[in-house]
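Course assignment 3, question 2. Fill in each field.
Student: A.L.
Task: Predict the tertiary structure for the chain below.
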Amino acid sequence: MTGRTPRNNKTTYFPHGFLLGAAMLMGLGPFAYGQQPLTDAQSDPRAMGWMQGFPPPVEKIVAYPASNYFSFPRLRWSFCHLPQMQASRRISRGVGNPSELPQALDSGIDQVSFLPLGSDQEMTWRESLAANYTDGLLVMHRGRVVYEYYSGCLDREGRHGAMSVTKSYVGLIAELLIAEGHLEEQSPVTRYVPELKDSAFGTATVRQVMDMTTALQFNEDYADPSSDIWVYAAAGDPTPKPESYTGPRNYYEYLQGVAPKGSHGEVFAYKSINSDALAWIIARASGKDVLEHLSARIWKPLGTEQEADVLVDSLGTPLAAGGLSLALRDAARLGQLMLQRGQWQGRQVIPAAVVDSISGGGDPEQFAPAGYSTLPGGSYRSQWWVLHNDHGAYSARGIHGQAIYVDPKADMVIARFASHPVSFNAVIDPTSLPAYQAVAEYLLEKSP
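Answer field:
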């Protein structure tokens, strides 16, 4: 497919794919209607009885379409079972034994208190877990697991949807290829993917795609059922399209039809399609797709405990914008690798310069107009969010509360999976970011 795909494609087709769920009004949960949602305990998938029984009762089935499985409270079950809902591919960990994560659990963390943003009432760390519908959370300090928590749909053996944390894995691979000379960050996108010459990406550089300073006509308003994210979701749906469907039929086709809006390189604008364009660039520059790189460069060298899954379109193209499902401990391993500037158990798995490029951040002046009020002074670099605080913290972030948070000053990593009824991190940050900072300070005080 060449040329631009019309963005005003009107169709009654509602896709099965992952991104539809993120775009649904359901992503706002009951708050969209001024109602209070079920609490963490009330919406626990075990308490709700989702998919229990042989077969489950009809009213307890979580299934197709996405308006069912991505609606709250069903999504609290779905986030641990996304590969059951849509086609996926595996990231292999190889056949070796998993690497050891030393453990020194600290029960005092539960009682660490903090003041949520915009509140005058303190909250404890333990209370924040329920407030954020936390499914799993692991804290590492000085290379040891000091806190580990599972709830809802998740246990240590399970995997959880990482949502846009996926992007940070993709950005890391791009930085690796740059460091190794396989990818030139200031080259035009069309050097690697000439098929994008007639799209908005055709005049962008690789670095602009990596840092999301591209100027794209793409509405990612999750509360607007007519936004471009719906068309994108339909393109990525791997199930057969109805005869009435006239839009793009996979991610590659969609990306070729993205129209420009403004000038590249001026401001940060969060558009998920940048991540899928970057994954296409990576594949063309290296001859391997992102999943092959993740297996060879991350999963196998780190000795992960589990394989991972990534949702795919009808061509098997991975959803680089948010299709990854993985184990909590393996998410923590990536955070620890970043904290150690690419070293893992005596081996330099990725160059320190790669981590330095990411953790150093982007341009806060380009970031500021985007209006992320919970990240004042922050920036975005290579698909990672950089806080520019006095701890030098940076993070991978995904909707509904997914995160890998790296705090170099405190020698701390936090990996969190959640299934908050609201998709937007702006709602979750007030009881997350201050909690992370409070635990970091608590651990610093305990350090010798």
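Instructor remarks: Residues 18-85 form one domain. The chain has 17 helices and 15 strands.
Grade: pending
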